[in-house]
Amino acid sequence: MSGFTLIELMIVVAIVGVLSMLAYPSYVEHLRRGYRAEARTALLEAQQFMERFYAANSRYTTDAAGTTSPALPARLQNVPAGSPRYTLGVVATVNSYTLTATTATTDKCGNLTLTNTGVKGRSGSEMSVQDCWK
Q1: H-helix or E-strand spanning residue 120
Q2: Distances in Å between the alpha carbon of 13 and those of 1, 5, 7, 21, 24?
Q3: pLDDT of 25-47, one tens digit each?
Q4: pTM for this structure?
């Protein structure tokens, strides 16, 4: 009779376990980078929306007093639509705004931000702004 012994099978299981333990964190980080890319794209689309709003109204707020931020289009409020990983929001004054992509999960970059002057930011401290926005 030929076949594998229990010891041989246990060694294979141990090797597979060690390999998956090493590969899984890298896989998860790769997924999170993809999710951040979706959020960055949505922030840039929201920035275009805000600039079009400003071109039409000569201000970033919906009222002349500068107290009410415009609502982002529904397609930009949750990224991706259906099962959102990020929620986009805007805080605006008459002459400026800050867009924020708030993460629904834990992420090394935290929440991503973008201002009317193009300044990019993040709330997390584990990665630099450049790494979060590349």
Answers
A1: strand 120-122
A2: 22, 13, 10, 12, 16
A3: 999 989 999 999 999 999 999 99
A4: 0.80
